[in-house]
Design brief:
The protein has about 130 residues and is mostly beta strands. The chain has no helices and eleven strands. Helix content is about 0%, strand content about 45%. The strands form two sheets. Strands 2, 4, 5, 6, 9, 10 and 11 form a seven-stranded mixed beta sheet that branches. Strands 1-3-8-7 form a four-stranded antiparallel beta sheet, with no helix packed on it. β7 (about 70-75) and β8 (about 80-85) form a beta hairpin. The chain starts with a strand and ends with a strand.
């Protein structure tokens, strides 16, 4: 069983930065791609970013490109999401997730490609 635990969320003002972290339990963290998603009230869960198992590949949704950076530390079973230039539109519950297929980044924007999810963490950006 794999458990994912997010941290680093909170209430910030527009223009501020936050760094989310997600720690994974279990083995083989270093052979799975990881993703970040978010869900705002009344909206569907939205893809934010993903990173391959060895960090060679990253991808982002258009609305966060140039502001957010995904990274990982396989020695600590942790994936990060550095969020700069936050706006109220970034307000959501953020989730980390582990891709279901080892050594694959197939369709990382699709939630059904992931089989383990964290409990989510609130990020609120005030104007």
């Amino acid at each position: 069983q794999v458990h994912l635990v997010e941290s680093g969320g909170g209430l910030v003002q527009a223009g501020d930065s936050l760094r989310l972290a997600c720690v994974a339990s279990g083995d083989n963290f270093n052979i799975y791609a990881m993703g970040w998603f978010r869900q705002a009230p009344g909206k569907d869960r939205e893809f934010v970013a993903a990173i391959s198992w060895g960090s060679a590949f990253t991808t982002y949704t258009d609305s966060v490109k140039g502001r957010f950076t995904i990274s990982r530390d396989n020695t600590k079973n942790t994936v990060f999401l550095q969020m700069n230039g936050l706006t109220p539109a970034d307000t959501a519950v953020y989730y980390c997730a582990r891709h279901a297929t080892p050594r694959s980044v197939l369709r990382p924007e699709e939630p059904n490609r992931y089989n383990y999810w964290g409990q989510g963490i609130q990020v609120t950006v005030s104007s």
